[in-house]
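Let us practice reading a record.
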Amino acid sequence: MSHQKIIADEKESSILITPERIETLLQMVEENKDGYEHSDKYLDILNRWKQGDFKSVDKDHNDMWFIQGTKEGGIATGITTKEQEKDYIFQVFGIPIEKQS
């Protein structure tokens, strides 16, 4: 879900970050936190994202990447600029985002 905000050599299966999606995931983790081995990590990330705090989204992405057991490719090496993020959203999801002045 973080692909729109990170720089990585490989990106597979993107999901657009939306406030509704973050809220849904927060609710799912809260309701099932005893069933998730890393629920505290998930809640930390999702609560920061809910507040619009993406300053460590590259680290968040990599933490999730390793939790999922992936060791090669797709590692975030930085955070996109606003323009890079807008371009990615348009290219992947076909959603134009107007330039802000």
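A brief commentary: The mean pLDDT is 92.
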